[in-house]
Design brief:
It is a single chain. The chain is α+β, with helices and mostly antiparallel strands. It has one domain: Electron Transport, Fmn-binding Protein, Chain A (Pnp Oxidase, Chain A, Roll), CATH 2.30.110.10. The chain has 3 helices and 7 strands. The chain is globular, with a radius of gyration of 15 Å. The mean pLDDT is about 95. The structure holds flavin mononucleotide (FMN).
């Protein structure tokens, strides 16, 4: 069984991620080779959970199958805040969560293939703003 120590995203972290468009999503394969993509279909569903639509994942999906972890980063130039969020993921290709993400995606674009719903359980949050607190863990 995978043990997940979830943490809650404070409001300022959620604000930065919600404003970040598109969101960089980093994965790694089982050898540690990194990969980063942009994602538009990413939403925060509660303090501990983020959903991402896999419409076109290729290396990202292969990486998640081997190593189900993601890191995202956001930067808000207005408030001068930046955060990294890391967590483990579940991949859903059917069931109520998949159907819910599919309905959200298809409400914006019916052309999206909606291969899978990637559900990220937040485990670590870091301040990524330049300055004396850069890199410090906040949750
Ligand atoms: C602006 C932008 C937004 C994107 N949004 C998504 C998305 O929401 N979902 C998705 O599956 N791919 C999205 N893509 C495609 C991925 O960034 C990427 O091309 C795809 O996962 C294949 O790369 P990979 O082999 O590294 O996984 C987007 C690409 C761009 C440029």
């Amino acid at each position: 069984m995978v043990v997940i120590d979830m943490v809650k995203m404070p409001p300022e972290v959620q604000e930065v991620i919600n404003k970040q468009k598109p969101v960089p999503v980093a994965t790694a394969d089982s050898n540690g080779k990194p990969n980063v993509i942009f994602v538009t279909f990413l939403r925060i569903v509660d303090d501990e959970t983020i959903q991402i639509a896999d419409n076109f994942f290729n290396k990202t999906r292969a990486n998640l199958n081997e190593n189900p972890q993601i890191s995202i980063v956001g930067y808000d130039s207005e408030t001068k805040r930046s955060f990294q969020v890391k967590g483990k993921v579940d991949i859903m290709t059917e069931g109520p969560v998949y159907e819910d993400v599919k309905a959200w995606v298809h409400a914006r674009s019916k052309a999206m293939p909606m291969i899978a719903a990637v559900v990220m359980h937040v485990e670590e949050i870091y301040n990524a703003m330049y300055g004396s607190d850069a890199g410090k863990r906040i949750a």
